[in-house]
Structures are given as structure tokens and as C-alpha cells.
Specification:
about 300 residues, alpha+beta, Uridine Diphospho-n-acetylenolpyruvylglucosamine Reductase, domain 2, Uridine Diphospho-n-acetylenolpyruvylglucosamine Reductase, domain 3, Uridine Diphospho-n-acetylenolpyruvylglucosamine Reductase, domain 1, 3 domains, four-stranded mixed sheet, 20 strands, globular
């Protein structure tokens, strides 16, 4: 680990109800199963507890938010600062009679899809194909099978670094392909999704189709982080990577999936450095062969 964070003042966590760990290995909490230790690892009991945590955390302490740990590469040196894990304390899902569904940032997208089906609501089926949580899906406008998260958003709840909660409407954000405008030092806490009445049997069948297609085309069961690169305009990253002859290419314990070229899997005890080096190698070879620069979809955080 490359040192520890030196703070101007030590925070007091006496009033915090959630779980705080120090020097927690991020390899336990990322789907790539790599990553060094985080100075602070915090799992809030609920949004009030999270707001209290932020209110006492010194402003000089960097923050990283995670859910299930997909779409994230944490370097081997770990995280200097605090990691907030939303998956346990912010994972509630509720529906209303007006066709709205309120889901916490830590709720798994696949669970949101299943919940909507049981509630007789349609429109969230595509979320069954997103491997992360609602918070991450909101932050990057995650999509699958022709649907995108912000297509069904009505409004969101956000939390500022000062610990204050606010409701914001969809109109206050600009959502594009794998991108969303969000104020600095503000994070998604929950979202209200606007869905349509649907037949439960039909919606469940659509979800099964999404999951079957995902299982057939993606390396489910391997340690990966989802799609590594954004699709370039009018093309697909997987096609470019495969056409460059990179399926199966390996750096250390990391390998480009032979099943889906836009996935990198950890199949032989890879380090984060192995994965990052393979990402750079893929970018360089695709650029050389096609003059197209692939942009990572995964977030790369931490120190080497």
C-alpha cells in the first residue's frame, strides 16, 4: 500500500450506526476480485446514517461509492480515502398504485427488474441484464437490450457532501450514452422509476429472455466487471477487439474473454495491474489497426 491518507482532523464516528472498517481489502468487494485496501470502508444502515457519516467526514477525505463492485477496477495500492458501500443499507424497493417504483441506490438492477414483474409493472425488464446496482446505473446511464436507465427515471434523491438530501427531477440532468451530468460532490441515493402496467407472466418471460441472452453471449460465472469499453459511434467495441485478433489475449492472470471480446476476465489470480495493462494493450492495438480509440466504460480508481 502506498502510504495512508493524512487528514487535517480525525473524524468522530460515535453517532454512526453502520459498519466501518479500516484497511479493508477491496478485492473482497469488486467483481474482478482485485484491489488493495481502502483507508475507510463504510456500510451505512440507511440514508440518515449515511448523511451523518458525510457530515462528520473531513472535507479532505476523498470518497468513492460502490454497490456490487462491478464496472470498477481498484488498483493494487488501494483507495486513499473512504469507500461507501450502498448495497446493504440503501437497497429497498417499493411500488405505488400509480405505477411508480422507488428503488434505493444499493438495490441490484436485476432485483429491480424482478420486483417490477411481481408488481405487474413493465418497462424495467432490460435492467435484468445490468450487473450492478441502481446507483451505478443512474451515474452512468447503464443500459442493456435496447433500454437505458434514464429512459424510465422520473426523479431522483441525491446526497451532498455536506450530508443534505435533495429531490431532483429528470429535467435537471442530461443523460447520454453511458453518461449523466451530476454536480460534483453529489451522489444518487434513490430513484423513482415511471413504469407502465404490464402482465406479470409476460414481463417475467421478457426477463427470462434477457437473462438467457446474457448467459449465452457473456462469460457469466467468470470474475469480470461487465463491459470494459464503451461502444464507439456506429460500431461495437467487441467487434473491433475480436477483429483485431485479441480474443484470448492474456496479461498475467487477466484474459480477454473468448466468449465476448468486450469482457476481461480474471481467471488465473490476476492483479489489478494485469487487468489495467491488458486494457491499455487492447486500446493500443485497436487504435493501430482501425484508428479508433476505445474509451473505458469501467471506472479505474486508486493508487498503483
Amino acid at each position: 500500500m502506498s502510504g495512508v491518507l493524512v487528514m487535517k482532523s480525525a473524524p468522530s464516528f460515535e453517532a454512526i450506526r453502520g459498519e466501518i472498517r479500516f484497511g479493508e481489502s477491496m478485492a473482497k468487494h469488486t467483481t474482478w476480485r482485485v484491489g488493495g485496501p481502502a483507508d475507510y470502508w463504510f456500510v451505512p444502515e440507511d440514508k440518515t446514517d449515511l448523511a451523518a457519516f458525510l457530515a462528520v467526514l473531513p472535507e479532505d477525505v476523498p470518497l468513492l461509492w460502490t454497490g456490487l463492485g462491478s464496472n470498477l477496477l481498484v488498483r493494487d495500492g488501494g483507495i486513499r480515502g473512504a469507500v461507501v458501500c450502498t448495497h446493504r443499507g440503501l437497497s429497498s424497493i417499493k411500488t405505488t398504485t400509480t405505477g411508480e417504483m422507488n428503488a434505493g441506490a444499493g438495490a441490484a438492477c436485476a432485483k429491480v427488474a424482478r420486483y417490477s414483474a411481481h408488481a405487474g409493472l413493465s418497462g424495467a425488464e432490460f435492467m435484468a441484464g445490468i450487473p450492478g446496482t441502481v446507483g451505478g446505473a443512474l451515474a452512468m446511464n447503464a443500459g442493456a437490450h435496447g433500454g437505458e436507465t434514464w429512459d424510465i427515471v422520473n426523479r431522483v434523491e441525491v446526497l451532498g457532501r455536506d450530508g443534505r438530501l435533495k429531490i431532483r427531477t429528470k429535467a435537471e440532468f442530461r443523460a447520454g450514452y453511458r453518461s449523466v451530468s451530476l454536480a460534483e460532490n453529489e451522489w444518487f441515493i434513490s430513484a423513482v422509476f415511471e413504469l407502465s402496467p404490464g402482465d406479470t407472466v409476460t414481463v417475467k418471460e421478457m426477463i427470462r429472455t434477457v437473462l438467457t441472452d446474457r448467459s449465452r453471449s457473456q462469460p457469466i460465472g467468470n470474475a469480470s466487471a461487465g463491459s470494459v469499453f464503451r461502444n464507439p459511434s456506429d460500431d461495437h467495441a467487441a467487434r473491433l477487439i475480436e477483429s483485431a485478433g485479441l480474443k484470448g489475449r492474456r496479461v498475467g492472470g487477466a484474459r480477454v474473454s473468448s466468449k465476448h471480446a468486450n469482457f476481461i476476465i480474471n481467471d488465473q489470480g490476476a492483479s489489478a495491474a494485469d487487468i489495467e495493462q491488458l486494457i491499455l494493450l487492447v486500446q493500443a492495438e485497436v487504435l493501430e489497426k482501425f484508428q479508433i480509440e476505445l474509451s473505458p466504460e469501467v471506472k479505474i480508481e486508486g493508487v498503483a
